[in-house]
Amino acid sequence: MPVRRAPAAARLLEIPGIGPAAAATIIAEVGVDMTHFPSPAHLAGWARFTPGAKESAGRRGGARFHDLGADFYLSRTDTERRERNHIRQLEALGYRVTLDLAA
């Protein structure tokens, strides 16, 4: 037996990616009276469906993903590499470095 749906739900189901549960949620949250929103953009903004342009002083924000590289964790746990880096940094500051193994 087919399920009866309201015309608004049937219309929402025409949108790719919107299923019955999403259509019911949208109708429950927004309702079917669209006179509250002057334009479709206002509805999308209210529902936070539109991507925002995150800018401050001309700088664009947004995704904050930075690829750390394949050896990110190895470089922090490899003791020999850390030793070489510390020696190099001290020598760059003008120090002569000799290391003796602590007992």
What does this 3D model show about the protein?
The chain has a domain at 7-51. The protein has helices at 7-12, 20-30, 40-47, 72-77, 79-92; strands at residues 55-56, 59-60. The chain has a two-stranded antiparallel ribbon. The mean pLDDT is 79. It is mainly alpha-helical and 103 residues long. The chain has five helices and two strands, in the order H-H-H-E-E-H-H. Helix content is 44%, strand content 4%.
Which of globular, elongated, flat, extended, rod-shaped describes the shape?
rod-shaped
- Order of neighbouring strands in the sheet with most strands: 1-2
In whole angstroms, the N-to-C terminal distance is 82 Å
Helix fraction?
40-55%
Please outline the major beta sheet: 2 strands, antiparallel
Strand-residue proportion: under 5%
| Mean residue pLDDT | 79
Class by alpha and beta content: mainly alpha
Determine Rg (CA atoms, Å): 29 Å
Ranges where pLDDT stays below 50 over 5 or more residues in a row are: none
Please, how many helices? 5
Considering the chains and any ligands shown, give keywords for the structure:
two-stranded antiparallel ribbon; single chain; 103 residues; rod-shaped; 44% helix; mainly alpha; 5 helices
SSE blueprint and pairings:
Blueprint: H1 7-12, H2 20-30, H3 40-47, E1 55-56, E2 59-60, H4 72-77, H5 79-92
What's this model, at a glance?
The protein has five helices and two strands, in the order αααββαα.
